[in-house]
Amino acid sequence: MSLRTRTQFPAALSELRLLRREHLATGVTRVTLAGDLGGLPELSGGAWAPDDRVKLFLPDPATGVLTPPRIGADGGILRPADAVSVSRDFTPSRVRAGGAGDAELDLDVVSPGANGPGTEWLLGAEAGESAVLAHPRFSRSVPGADAVAEFVLVADETGFAAAARWLAALDPGIRVSAVFLGEDDGYEEFLPAELRSRASIDWLYRVDGPGQLREAVASIPLGERSFVWAAGEAGELAPIRRELLATLPPERVDLTGHWRRGLVNHDPDLELDRI
Question: pLDDT tens digits, residue range 15-27?
Fold first, then answer.
């Protein structure tokens, strides 16, 4: 039985404009989009789960023309058949009321050496340029202290926004162990001090070599009331998931591959057991 209740939402689209950028930490930039987000509640209202995702539809990289999707008769989101449709999934870090009747949505964007089209647009577009946001199609609840005694939180840069929200959302009665992986010194700044104090954190750095994430997760003692959530590179998480399932039942192991090394258009909904 799942420890996270799933709530389905109807399809909804919003056209947003790029408002501003802010340096958040080494390799991480917060990009703010603004526009009419009717029906999309503020994150602070508790209506979102920490790992809820939105899909951002972007202008054609070759022409700069934005051809938005539409909602079909069956309630699904339809891409244009006669134009280039580029989209990427993101986990928002904040949604809140903005100025002039707009709402603002923050995306924490990773800037590694090889950027995909989503990162390139968010970090390179001019203020005022537009993209289309597809609202979350579902949300899964946050497990409570009645079911979870220890929460293990694992993330690289692509999971930092969700990780921060997990730390803010979890019941204070739940012990939290966290393993974070970043490129080099300085990425720790993504997490405010008040949230750092919420967990026992192991900070890892890619410059120290491969395999660290797997070793760090394997070193954390797990009990029958543990829950493990992770987001990062799919190829790195796949063997970790297999090892965790030798100790915990599937409903207590929630790992998502946000990206895959060497693959341009990775699907984050792809099950890790297929990798």
Answer: 999 999 999 988 8
User: Beta partners for 200?
Assistant: 177
SS3 content of the chain, % helix, strand, coil (to 5): 20, 35, 45
pTM confidence score: 0.91
Of the candidates 25, 23, 7, the one whose C-alpha atom is nearest the C-alpha of residue 196 is 25
pLDDT tens string 94-141: 888 877 778 999 999 987 544 578 888 999 999 999 999 999 988 999
CA atoms of 255 and 158, how far apart (whole Å): 13
Distance CA 71, CA 67 (A): 13
Closest-CA residue to 152 (of 241, 28, 53): 241
Q: How far apart are CA 117 and CA 236, in angstroms?
A: 23
Res 56 pLDDT > 60: yes
Which burial class, exposed, middle or buried, applies to 24 when counting CB atoms under 10 A from its CB (0-12, 13-18, 19+)?
buried
The count of C-alpha atoms lying within 13 angstroms of the C-alpha of 16, restricted to the half-sphere facing its C-beta, is: 32
Instruction: Quote the CA–CA distance of 173 and 148 in Å, as a whole number.
Output: 9
Helices (H), the chain: 117-124, 160-169, 193-196, 212-218, 234-244
Tokens, residue 47: 């209506």
Of the candidates 90, 86, 100, the one whose C-alpha atom is nearest the C-alpha of residue 30 is: 90
Q: What's the one-letter identity of residue 199? A: A
**Cβ-count burial 89-124 (b if 16+ within 10 Å, e if not):** bbbbbbbeebeeebbbbbbbbbeeeeebbbbebbee
